């Protein structure tokens, strides 16, 4: 069997030299890729990082605000129980108080004002209670 010589101007790598060269190129590409994603301690070109929307306080605020508004507007799902709404006992108690306050506000100043009150009180109470994630076991109705 006759071997054909490599084309002129083109070098071929065989054996361990080829593997070594391939690994070197792969390592260099990996270093460039990883280096591009690292932070240098300065703000990124995309601006400041977004706040942590998955914190217990943020989740509590969103849940209570949503369900309280559904309750005062008679939304389709307003009649679900606390478990179906994804609320803890503590969150349900907070929501119940906020709904009572919002109904009073709605009678005096209208729906828009009641919704603002809901947002404000939900954020305040959830922050005070650090997300109000108290256990949902042995549920009892709010006072």
Automatic annotation (TrEMBL):
Q: Where is this region: Disordered?
A: 104-143
Q: Which domain of life is it from?
A: Bacteria
Q: Where is the signal peptide?
A: 1-31
Write out the biased-composition intervals (Polar residues): 130-143
Which portions of the chain have biased composition (kind: Basic and acidic residues)? 104-128
Q: Keywords for this entry?
A: Signal
In its UniProt entry, what is this protein called?
Answer: Lipoprotein
Species assigned in the record: Streptomyces longisporus
- Top-down, what is the taxonomic lineage of the species of origin? Bacteria, Bacillati, Actinomycetota, Actinomycetes, Kitasatosporales
């Amino acid at each position: 069997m006759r071997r054909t010589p490599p084309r002129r101007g083109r070098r071929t790598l065989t054996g361990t030299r080829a593997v070594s060269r391939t690994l070197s190129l792969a390592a260099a590409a990996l270093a460039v890729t990883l280096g591009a994603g690292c932070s240098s301690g300065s703000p990124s070109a995309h601006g400041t990082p977004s706040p942590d929307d998955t914190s217990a306080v943020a989740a509590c605020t969103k849940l209570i605000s949503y369900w309280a508004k559904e309750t005062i507007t008679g939304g389709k799902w307003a009649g679900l129980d606390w478990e179906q709404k994804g609320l803890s006992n503590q969150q349900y108690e907070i929501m119940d108080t906020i709904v009572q306050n919002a109904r009073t506000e709605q009678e005096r100043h209208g729906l828009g004002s009641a919704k603002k009150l809901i947002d404000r009180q939900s954020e305040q109470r959830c922050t005070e209670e650090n997300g109000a994630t108290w256990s949902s076991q042995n549920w009892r109705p709010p006072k």
